[in-house]
Amino acid sequence: KMVTSSEVDERTLREIYLSAFERIIKKSDPWTIMCSYNLLNGSYTSENEHLLDDILRKEWGYEGVVLSDWTAVNDRIRGLKAGLDIEMPGPAHYNAAAIVEAVQNGTLLEEQLNKSVRRILTLVEQVTANEGESNTAAIDYHELARKAAAESIVLLKNDNGILPIDPAKAQSIAVIGTFAKKPRIQGAGSAEVTPTCVDIPWEELQKIAGESVQFSYAEGYPKDERIDEAMIEESAVLAAKSDLAILFVGQPEYAESEMHDLDSIDLPEHQVKLIQAVAAAQPRCIVVTSSGTAMAMRPWVQHVPGVLHSWLTGQGSGRAIAEILFGMTNPSGKLSETFPVKLSDNPSHMRIRGENGKLFYREGLFVGYRYYDRKELAPQFPFGHGLSYTTFAYSDMKVIQHDRRVTVSLQVENTGAVVGKEVVQLYVHDEECKWTRPEKELKAFAKIELQPHEKKEVVFELEERDFAYYNTKYNRWVAETGYFKLVAGSSSRDIRLTERVFCDFGKEEISFHKFSLLNDWIADPLAKSVLEKCFNEMNEHVIDQVVLNEGFIGFWGDFPAIKVLQMFGQNWLVHRTPDQVIEELIAEVDRERRQAVQ
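Given the sequence above, the corresponding structure tokens read:
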């Protein structure tokens, strides 16, 4: 990642990779932002003027500090010119000397340096003004950590209602897996923090169940990836003796660390064999997975009725897991990424490493659920998926456009017997755009809590930008007038309601040129009128006449209009060339447009 150039086309960069940063910067105005190690389209991000100045500061209006990742600076002077303020780690004395020299010899303007200095001084003032002791006790932070974990954990599978656990039917429970006593709560590397305390799932399960349930434990698998048949056999025997088995598995810490790429998204083989053996011995089996990324489950998921994905949800996750397993908390998390059946289903699988220092993002816009939708490929679990201990019904969807905004409202009812939270997801599908667009794109979501049989209205306000794509011809976002489908669902594949709406965002004035398509000419009423006059004149001199009916346009629509002239206008084009005719037509369109606005 320190020497590879990410080769990304501008539209994909804007729509997929920059949009989240843009939203955060415009809505929350952060004090700092960090640039990455890699190159972007041949230029280090630490000195990429298009990224750090044109987009970040000029387009998005960011006024805060940009700092580098550790040792990510390639050329300190270029970085300063592009908008990189702070080099980390620092200060690097050799680069400080280089800055002084660059100012003295005129390579770096003093005003450019002063801009960075002002931004850094502003940051110092902001930090100083917010200094002081926190009045919040560590226990309050821990309760917040528990709540955040409980809101994020995802119930992936719950066949035959095996969850929540009923102590009356599970008086003996086998808890299997090292992660039950030594949980993974976070990634390794520079993001690792020291927790104030850590909830242990093994302990929290017993606290909740009390003496009504007898718990037993087996380690299940070694720290390394050896397949220990004795440990697997011990676990299977223990599970068979119990009313229920809970397995705690996941990616090992060394596999999900900074500066390390996963070789596979499957569980380690010794854990796969463990799950298969335990499930064969005890069909009433629940698997709790821990990982920081999507996980392939094909070798074992069909053998277990319950799967709970806990991600790496911090110091309070042990309690949150236990509460969800016993029904004290109703799970409400949703998948933030697609879980494929196998790694090779992923759109980037063919080009993981890149070549000659370049990694081409050839999948373009079609990443995640966008790819699986377009390929009509079934994932193991789709984006946005997450089950609950209750059920929700969607109804009465309404769509209203006012000015260039669209209001979407719908009713959601808790049709079950327990309180629950639902994440309502709103996707947009463009029916008419001439540019390639995904089948649907998530544009809004809302999490609501409902008591049993309670119904609430959910309202989304969509802006013009939510219907737009990034037009690389004009280098700006464009929302085209036309029909859209507004799609509401519980996941990207669990669609509950759909409404079709015509949205008027005005007409984009087409800029005509020599090779503008016939379809472009007839899409503009004024240009179509000009072109029809031309064809009417031509038809008086030719045998095969041009009539802009459905059949003719169906065949010739994607041909440049000049080619239609060349094909049908030979007998008419005696004293003029097709190029001259097109130039005259363009000039006439421009003339009539100017007259229309006077």
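The chain has a mean pLDDT of 95. Try to locate this feature in the token string yourself.
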